[in-house]
Each structure stands twice: as structure tokens, then as C-alpha cells.
Amino acid sequence: EAQVTQNPRYLITVTGKKLTVTCSQNMNHEYMSWYRQDPGLGLRQIYYSMNVEVTDKGDVPEGYKVSRKEKRNFPLILESPSPNQTSLYFCASSLRPSTEAFFGQGTRLTVV
Amino acid sequence: GENVEQHPSTLSVQEGDSAVIKCTYSDSASNYFPWYKQELGKRPQLIIDIRSNVGEKKDQRIAVTLNKTAKHFSLHITETQPEDSAVYFCAATYGNNRLAFGKGNQVVVIP
Known about the structure:
The complex is a heterodimer of chains A (112) and B (111).
Chain A: E1 4-7, E2 10-13, E3 19-25, E4 31-38, E5 42-51, E6 54-57, E7 65-66, E8 76-78, E9 87-94, E10 102-103, E11 107-111
Parallel strand pairs in A: 2-11
Antiparallel strand pairs in A: 1-3, 3-8, 4-5, 4-9, 5-6, 7-8, 9-10, 9-11
Chain B: E1 5-7, E2 10-14, E3 19-24, E4 32-38, E5 45-51, E6 56-59, E7 62-67, E8 72-77, E9 86-94, E10 98-101, E11 105-110
Parallel strand pairs in B: 2-11
Antiparallel strand pairs in B: 1-3, 3-8, 4-5, 4-9, 6-7, 7-8, 9-10, 9-11
């Protein structure tokens, strides 16, 4: 089954404790993105990747890192989480930006 | 960057009536315009999309129209049903490798 898998689904952590949210897709897609969804602000792109070893900043990259060592995986790293990073995070993949994006299940992150 | 705006932010319709959501975009080079539906607690899913060389596209009860001159595109849902209640996001490509989303519209279908 074609899918995008994120883990974990829910995470509560403390300020400053490094964490990684994993994202994996099995569709051989080249384009992958991370979004955060906040009430009233829609989906804002954090980082995106055009292909392996090619990543770039989206609209809200501060406080986040990503890597793309393999085509299927695109982890999101928060080196020192802060409460303003409490949000719902979605990973998405597509062949290109101009084709259907498939979203993961979402990760609800709370930083206290 | 691209600025994508959706109106209205919330739309309530009687079951069976039509719903229309309008999106405007700022980048005249944008060439791909998808609509995503997000049900409560679920992930966004593509429901319809349109490319800049097409003016209208229809899929059963949903349709999308594009006006490139005015830089806006609209989602039309006919014969609305309770399962159409959701948040709808429009988006537009820009800069060859970016996809910008609007803030979303909450559609409520009243039985």
C-alpha cells in the first residue's frame, strides 16, 4: 500500500530536549516536505527536499533541521525544542511539487 | 514568496445546497492549483486539482475553475452532504519547487 508514515503520532517533551520525528514513504517520490499546522494559520512549509542530499528552507525553518540521506526518509529534527514549536506536524511526499502530495498521519507535538 | 488567500474562512450551507470557496494567489507564474480536504483529526487529502492550461475541471459533485487573468480559482461543491463537512485548503505552486497553502476554509453542512 502506497503510504507516508510518520512517527511518533503524539509526543510530549520538555524544553531543550532534542527530538526527531521520522517520515518514510514507499512511493519512490523525489519531493518531500514538512509542514506545521496551527489554528488559523493553515499549513506552513518548514523544509522541503527535491531529492537525496538536496534540502532547502521553507517559510518557517527557524529551530528545525532536516536531512535526506535516502530517498524514502526525511526526518525532522528539533535540536532544542521550545514551547512555540508546539504544533501539529505533517510530512508529505510527491513526485514533484506540481503533483499530488501524500500526507503522513501527522505528529502532535507538545513542548512544555 | 507566494501569497495564497482563501475566502470565506467559514462557510455554513444547508444540506443539498451548493458551496463555493474562492482562492486568490499572487504569483502570475503559478501553474498548478490543488484543493485538499481535511476531515477532523485526519490528514489532508487531494480532492481535485487544475493546471494553468485548463479553465475548469469537474469530478462528480466537485469542480474547480481557474481565472488566470484575475489570479483566482474556486472550488464548487454541489448537492452538499454531511460528509462534505471539513476544512478545505487551496494551494498554488511557485518558484519551480514550492507549494504554498492557504489558511483553510471550514465548511459546515447543516442537515
